[in-house]
Design goal:
- The protein has seven helices and no strands.
- It has about 170 residues and is an all-alpha fold.
Length: about 170
């Protein structure tokens, strides 16, 4: 596969994954709850740092940070600048990009609501916080996935294979 193809499909994957970044809110919200858990709750906050051992405590900052929308737009623009879409692919891509942007707005609204409420003070508030983020993540996924599935269906088998390969790799860094 050519370097250009790899870059193109990396961009598509990044744009789609940015839209679905709200799903990381589920882990991030658990980590945020874990931040205030007592040391006796080893699974969440004590001992070996529970779920936080991979930097989970910073996920909310990344998802709700000021660069979120810029990163989403950068991913979309990256794909659009390199890809030569067929007409059906262009139409499907435009729907996917719109779903991604709508998801970004939903995440931004949830982040603003949570920020205005301040840090959760008790167990009930922490669960409400987690519920808000999980609900937002599910809302985004249910809107992005059909558009992504439609876009994926317009790709030829080589393009689908490249995207499958990209999305199945474990990226570390």
């Amino acid at each position: 596969m050519s370097r250009k193809s790899i870059l193109i499909f990396s961009g598509i994957g990044l744009a789609a994954m940015a839209a679905v970044a709200a799903t990381t809110l589920s882990i991030g919200s658990v980590a945020a709850v874990a931040e205030t858990a007592s040391a006796s709750t080893g699974f969440f906050g004590g001992g070996h740092k529970g779920w936080r051992h991979r930097g989970g405590g910073h996920r909310m900052a990344m998802v709700c940070g000021p660069m979120r929308s810029e990163k989403v737009e950068h991913g979309i623009e990256f794909v659009e600048s390199f890809m030569n879409f067929t007409t059906p692919q262009q139409q499907a891509w435009e729907s996917l990009a719109a779903a991604i942007r709508a998801g970004d707005i939903s995440v931004g609204n949830a982040c603003a609501d949570l920020k205005s409420q301040g840090k959760p003070e008790n167990a009930t508030a922490k669960l409400a916080f987690a519920e808000t983020m999980l609900s937002t993540g599910l809302e985004v996924v249910t809107k992005v996935r059909p558009a992504f599935d439609n876009f994926y269906g317009t790709l030829n088998s080589k393009q689908q294979s490249a995207l499958d390969n990209l999305m199945s790799r474990r990226h570390r860094g």
